[in-house]
Design a protein that fits this description.
The protein has 168 residues and is an alpha+beta fold. Helix content is 23%, strand content 30%. The protein has one domain: 3-Layer(aba) Sandwich (Trna Endonuclease, Chain: A, domain 1), CATH 3.40.1350. The chain contains 2 helices and 8 strands. The strands form 2 sheets. Strands 1-2-4-5-8 form a 5-stranded mixed β-sheet. The protein has a 3-stranded antiparallel β-sheet with strand order 3-7-6.
Length: 168
């Protein structure tokens, strides 16, 4: 398959992933709202093609208010792993985000919410722990012939494990 076809394929896959990602953001926004926190979601814009993708970067998944301050939250749905807590998390480290997304974010995310495959639990990683993260280049298996840099952290950087379907 030639490069142009890879790009077209990857762009179609990305658009589908974006739609599934939005469902996870909506789930977490509802979780926040049920607990009395406002949840503001910026308008989603989808690039019409791969070449213009950087002009369509979002300004964050959602925002809420903590102690009167507006904070950015990024929601990451992990389609390949299930977990409910550190006890059953399958790896000794956690993938936080694509490195470029942190590096280009303004404002920097206050919190990353990593949601499991079944959408029943999440791990919270505060942006303030970023000095403890490191970068690894990985093949992104969702796409053809595509690797990128990701930030990883030790599980000790997870400040809270939550059940999204629990009544608190």
């Amino acid at each position: 398959m030639n490069d142009r076809l890879h790009v077209e394929h990857n762009n179609r896959v990305f658009t589908g992933n974006l739609s599934r990602s939005r469902a996870a953001v909506n789930l977490f926004a509802a979780y926040l709202f049920k607990r009395g926190y406002p949840a503001e979601m910026p308008e989603e814009r989808v690039a019409p093609d791969y070449q213009s993708r950087m002009d369509y970067r979002d300004d964050g998944d959602l925002f809420t208010r903590i102690a009167g301050h507006r904070v950015r939250i990024e929601v990451k749905a992990r389609e390949n792993i299930d977990f409910t807590s550190a006890a059953d998390y399958p790896y000794p480290t956690i993938m936080v985000c694509a490195a470029h997304s942190w590096e280009m974010a303004d404002p920097k995310p206050w919190l990353y919410v990593i949601i499991n495959r079944s959408r029943t639990a999440a791990a919270y990683v505060r942006g303030s722990t970023q000095p403890e993260w490191w970068v690894e280049e990985k093949q992104d298996k969702r796409y053809m012939n595509y690797s990128q840099r990701f930030y990883f952290a030790r599980l000790e950087c997870v400040c809270k494990w939550v059940r999204l379907n629990a009544v608190e």
